[in-house]
């Protein structure tokens, strides 16, 4: 689970005030992203379940940018996330806004892989971590086979809803070894995947966003831009000059990766039909989330409570699998602003149903507070 930092998210449009040419004060047409989501694809990955008094699994992978990551899954499902880039570790620590941030650490690593023409796999991995030297020698029991199926994350990484699938996979054979400080660790199972693809929706988040500057478009909202301070980090949102055939604008969030949303202004608020993001390295694949019917976000509820419901479906392009469920929004007045409570409920595949998300978004003039909890 890497690549791009997770600051952008399943889109929520929280707006206030009344209307200019498109139906709202343009400065308040702000596409807030309370749901963090990202995508990474096309990587090599080995996942090995072990019998150990402290860990449940060892997982290491290449990244689309050429780096190496190591995840040590503890018995309670929490993960220590090692990277071979000191600067990236500090960036992840600084911009991890979740209420349960991951434990990011630096470790020098070595990784080599050899995949024969017949699909046999041999991988050698070494990491000098602060908890000891981890060495893995993986050899496959047979050739890589087409897989294209979802991965059950079991109880690992409970801070996210993982939309994961692998293009090819091969199990490890009896020669596969895991060593810690030169001593063997008992292996329960081992698998290598090629073309591992990760779409992730984060279940925890906490941040404050403030509007710094608004740049109007030539014709109302079309072509407008917003500059927001997101916990000390400047993020730009821009809106397309034209709408699609259904009347939806395309809104881009530009930070260290690209996220897009398709929204439609209506008389009393905004509708959202689709979100997407893609790796800048593998732009041919995207992770997208669709809503049917489109999600509705009101401008104001005028002292009353407004509840809306929809269904969501998430998928990685070119995969034969998706995930989905229900989503419920309840909006009510909060002083001069608006508070929205969101329940994001996965229902299929069934193993994702244990990972609901609750969001609370408070809008007060030009400031937005976002809190997400499991």
Task: Write up what this structure looks like.
By secondary structure, the protein is an all-beta fold. It has two domains: 40-201, no CATH class; 204-373. The chain contains one helix and 25 strands. A twelve-stranded antiparallel β-barrel has the order 14-15-16-17-18-19-20-21-22-23-24-25. An eight-stranded mixed sheet has the order 5-4-3-2-1-13-10-9. The protein is elongated and about 65 Å long. It starts with 36 loop residues before the first strand and ends with a strand. Mean pLDDT is 82; it is low at 1-24.
Set out the fold topology.
Layout: E1 37-51, E2 55-62, E3 68-74, E4 79-83, H1 86-95, E5 103-106, E6 109-115, E7 121-129, E8 132-139, E9 145-150, E10 160-171, E11 177-180, E12 183-184, E13 186-202, E14 205-215, E15 225-230, E16 233-243, E17 249-254, E18 258-266, E19 269-278, E20 286-298, E21 305-316, E22 322-334, E23 337-348, E24 357-364, E25 367-373
Write a compact overview of the structure shown.
The chain has one helix at residues 86-95; strands spanning 37-51, 55-62, 68-74, 79-83, 103-106, 109-115, 121-129, 132-139, 145-150, 160-171, 177-180, 183-184, 186-202, 205-215, 225-230, 233-243, 249-254, 258-266, 269-278, 286-298, 305-316, 322-334, 337-348, 357-364, 367-373.
């Amino acid at each position: 689970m890497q690549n791009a930092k997770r600051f952008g998210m399943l889109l929520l449009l929280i707006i206030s005030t009344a209307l200019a040419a498109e139906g709202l004060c343009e400065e308040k047409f702000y596409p807030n992203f309370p749901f963090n989501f990202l995508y990474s694809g096309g990587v090599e990955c080995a996942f090995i379940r072990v019998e150990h008094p402290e860990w449940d699994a060892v997982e290491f992978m290449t990244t689309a940018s050429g780096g190496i990551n190591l995840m040590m899954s503890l018995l309670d499902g929490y993960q220590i996330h090692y990277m071979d880039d000191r600067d990236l570790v500090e960036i992840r620590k600084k911009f991890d806004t979740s209420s349960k941030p991951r434990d990011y650490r630096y470790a020098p690593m070595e990784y080599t892989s050899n995949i024969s023409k017949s699909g046999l796999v041999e991988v050698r991995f070494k990491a000098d971590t602060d908890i000891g030297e981890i060495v893995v020698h993986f050899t496959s029991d047979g050739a890589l086979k087409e897989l294209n199926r979802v991965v059950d994350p079991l109880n690992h990484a409970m801070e996210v809803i993982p939309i994961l699938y692998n293009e090819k996979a091969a199990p490890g054979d009896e020669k596969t070894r895991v060593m810690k400080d030169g001593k063997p660790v008992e292996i329960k199972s081992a698998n290598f995947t090629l073309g591992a693809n990760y779409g992730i929706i984060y279940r925890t988040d906490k941040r404050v966003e403030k509007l710094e500057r608004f740049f109007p478009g030539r014709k109302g909202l079309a072509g407008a831009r917003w500059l927001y301070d997101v916990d000390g980090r400047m993020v730009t949102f821009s809106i397309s000059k034209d709408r699609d055939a259904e009347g939806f604008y395309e809104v881009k969030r530009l930070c260290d990766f690209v996220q897009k949303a398709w929204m439609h202004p209506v008389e009393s608020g905004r509708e959202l039909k689709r979100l997407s993001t893609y790796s800048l390295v593998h732009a041919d694949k995207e992770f997208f989330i669709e809503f049917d019917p489109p999600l509705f976000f009101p401008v104001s509820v005028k002292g009353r409570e407004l509840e809306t419901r929809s269904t969501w479906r998430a998928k990685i392009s070119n995969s034969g699998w998706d995930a989905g469920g229900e989503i419920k929004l309840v909006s009510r007045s909060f002083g001069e602003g608006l508070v929205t409570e969101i329940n994001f409920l996965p229902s299929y595949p069934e193993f994702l149903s244990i990972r609901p998300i609750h969001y609370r978004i408070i809008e007060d003039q030009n400031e937005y507070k976002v809190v997400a909890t499991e």
